[in-house]
Structures are given as structure tokens and as C-alpha cells.
Amino acid sequence: MDDLFPPFAPDPNEPRPRRFKPVPFRMIAPNMITLMALCLGLTAIRLAFEGKFEPAVIAVVVAGVLDGIDGRVARLLKGTSRFGAELDSLADFVNFGCAPALILYGFVLFHLKSLGWIVALIFAIAMALRLARFNAMLDDPNRPEWKKDFFVGMPAPAGALTAMLPLYLHFLGFGLERWAAPAILIYVLCIALLVVSTVPTYSGKTMGKRVPRSLVLPIFLFGVAAFGILISYPFEALVTVSAGYLLTIPVVAAQYRRRLKAEQAAGTEERPAAVAEDRPAAATSE
Known about the structure:
GO terms for molecular function: phosphotransferase activity, for other substituted phosphate groups. It holds the Pfam family CDP-OH_P_tran_2. The chain is an all-alpha fold. The chain has one domain (25-208, 226-265): Four Helix Bundle (Hemerythrin (Met), subunit A) (Up-down Bundle), CATH 1.20.120.1760. The protein has helices at residues 25-49, 53-77, 82-107, 114-138, 156-163, 165-171, 181-196, 216-232, 234-285, and strands spanning 150-152, 200-202. Strands 1-2 form a two-stranded antiparallel sheet. The longest helix is centred in the C-terminal third of the chain and has 52 residues, at 234-285.
């Protein structure tokens, strides 16, 4: 029996096992913000199950704010990574797909039974498809620079916040009871279709890179006023922002079409010029 388990002496010349390299904190900080947003989304689902819709909506709104911060923090600290991008997409699906769908179903869509649940499923799956398309478009090297000012379809945070517009109105005293369930169902379905559509919406990613010095103080005052209004009148502000965002979609789509036509016109002008430059070279070669 002793021969079956001979003593083992490690080779002194064997190299030490490779250790993992330490990860700098600047790579961890954006992911921590994403995880905090994910915790808020999951907490919103729990609050919806308990019938506490107002704090559930606030949790989703705060998760949306954190979602807008984590990417900017990552770029500021130069801590962007593929892991962070994948984690952000998964968190967005929970925060802006699953949480609003379950909140809306628990609030009013359950009155429509299976039909209400089907629309809640459509909304959540639309968010997943939209996020998958967004990740695929990030790897497109031929995308023009000006298209970074636009999203293809409604972004996930905007889709979630605008989908909960009936809840904001309910909190302001508008009686959206069982009779309003069909109208809310149609509204949520329209938002889901906008999320997966190719309608261009404004991204705002390039906004604020360079601010004129004369506008710095007015921007500070506007930011303080907006924060005060959001704290004092949260649901009035959310109704205004949601309605204003929906009204700007046709304007942004028209602006996108104008810039696309300008790019196509510039391309057609450059093509004949390039052909004219090539013709003398071809003649001399003959």
C-alpha cells in the first residue's frame, strides 16, 4: 500500500506559480457604480412585489442616473474595459428591461391578465435586443464620426423612464385605475417598438466636451435649479422630461436625415472628382 502513495517532494527548480496581476482601482471604480445601479434595479423589483411602487420607480430613476455616470467615470479615469462594457449591458437589461416591465405589470397590466404579461415580456425582450444591437454596433469600424451624436432607436434608460410615465401621472393624482389598463398597454407597446426601431434619437455623448467660458456660470445655475426642481417636484419633473423627450424624437430624426443627405451629397461630389483625376493617368499609361 505504501507504493500506491509515494511521498512527493516538489522540484526546487520548478518555477513558482504565476500570480494574477493587481488590478488598478481606476478599473474597479466604474464597475462598482454599475453594481450599485444593478442593486437598485433588483431592489425596485422587490419593492414592486411588495406594492411599494413609488420607491420602486425612484430606484429605477437613480439607477438610470448611475448608468449615465459609470461610463463617463470610466472614460475620465481611463478605466474602460471589455468586462465593464459587458457588465454594464447586463445591468441595463435588469434595470431598464426587467424592473420597469415587472413594475408596470404589478401596477396595472395585471388587470389584463395574460395579455398584460405578454406586453411586459415584449418590453423586456425589446430591451435585450436593443442592448445586443448597441454592442454589435460598437465594433463597426466604418461608422461615420457624426453618427456618434445619435442612437439607433430609443436608448435603454430613456425607454425605461418614459415607459413609466403612467406611474408618474398616477403619483400626481391622476386616477389611472383598471379602466386605463388598455391605454397603458398600448403606450408600453409603442415604447417597446421605439426601443427596437431604427428611429434615430439624440445621444448627447459629444455634448459638453468644450464649453464656452461665458456659459460656465449659467450652466452652474441651471444645474442647481434643475436639481432643486427634481428634489422638490420629482414626478412633475419626470413627466415634463418624459413628454419633452418624446416630442423631440421627430425633430432629432429630421436632423439626422439632413446630415445623412449632406454626407451622401458630399460622397457623390467626391466620386466624379476622383474619376476625373484618374483619367489622365490612364491615358498616359497607354
